Amino acid sequence: MTILTFTLILLAGAYLAGLVGSLTGLGGGVVVIPLLTLVFHVDIRYAIGAALLASIANSSGAASAYVKEGITNIRLGMFLEIATTIGAVVGAVIAVYTPTNTIAILFGVILLFSAAMTIRKKNQEALTVGSKASFRLKLNSTYPTKDGEVAYQLKNVGAGFSIMTLAGVLSGLLGIGSGALKVLAMDSTMHIPFKVSTTTSNFMIGVTAAASAVVYLQRGYMDPGIAFPVVLGVLGGAFTGSKLLTRLDPKVLKYIFCLAISFVAVEMIYNGYNHQF
C-alpha cells in the first residue's frame, strides 16, 4: 500500500468516525482507534496520539457553538477541568508503561460501557434545590429553551469531581474523550439537565485531551502522517454530522451504533487477550 493510498483511506475512515461520533455523541475517538489498530495494524499508542489531536480539534469547533448559544456551563466546566486535567496527565504517564494488550482490553471494556450509556434514560429535568457546595462555588446556572431560560442547581459536587478525575485518567490512558463517564458524573450524579451536561462535557474534552497529548508528544507517539488525515477527517465528519442531526432520528442511529461498537469492543478485548497488539 502506497503512502497516498493509506492517507486517502485513513481520511475517509476518519471522516466516517467523525460523522458517527457526532451523531451519537460519543466522539470520533471510539471509532478512530479501533480503525487504526484493527484495520491498519498501527501501534495503539500512535493511534491514541492521533485520536487525542482529533479530540482537541473537534471539541474546539463544536464547543464554541454551544458556548455562543448559552447552553454550556463554563464555570462548571472550568472547575471540573481541574480534575480531568490532573487525571489525564496521570493516565498518559501510566499508558507509556502499560502493555499495549492491557490497554486494548481496557479500551474494549470502556467501549461496552459507552455503548450502554448511550441508550440509557437521560435526565432532562432541572433540579430546583442544590447543595451548599454548588452555591459556594457559584456553579448553578440557566440554559435557554424554546420556552425561555430554565434555571437549574447542582448536588453531589464532590462525587462528580471524583468521577471526573477517573474520566481524566481514562482519557489519558485510552485517548478517548471519556464522554460517557463525564455525562454520568454530571447527569446522574450531579443531576444536571442532559443538554447542559453533554455540551459542557464537549467543552471540557479539548482541554483534557491537550493535557494528555503533551505526554504523548514528549514520548514521540505523535506521527504527523497518521494524525493529520485523522484530524481533517474527524473535523469534516463532525461538521457533516451536526448538519444531519436535525434530519435523522438519533435514537435509531444510537441503537445501530451500540451494536456496531459492541462488536468492535469484543474484537478489541479478544485481540488484546490473545496478545495480537
Tell me what the structure shows:
With 277 residues, the protein is mainly α. It has one domain. Helices cover 74% and strands 4% of the residues. The chain contains eleven helices and two strands; from the N terminus they run ααααααββααααα. A two-stranded antiparallel ribbon has the order 1-2. Strand 1 (141-145) and strand 2 form a beta hairpin. The model has no long low-confidence stretch (mean pLDDT 79).
Name its key features.
2 strands, TSUP, two-stranded antiparallel ribbon, membrane, 277 residues, single chain, 74% helix, mainly alpha, transport
Describe what is shown at a glance.
By secondary structure, the protein is mainly alpha-helical. Helices cover 74% and strands 4% of the residues.
Q: Structural class of the helix and strand makeup?
A: mainly alpha
Kindly estimate the percentage of residues that lie in beta strands according to DSSP: under 5%
> Low-confidence stretches at least 5 residues in length (pLDDT < 50)?
none
Mean pLDDT: 79
Estimate nothing, just give the exact number of structural domains: 1
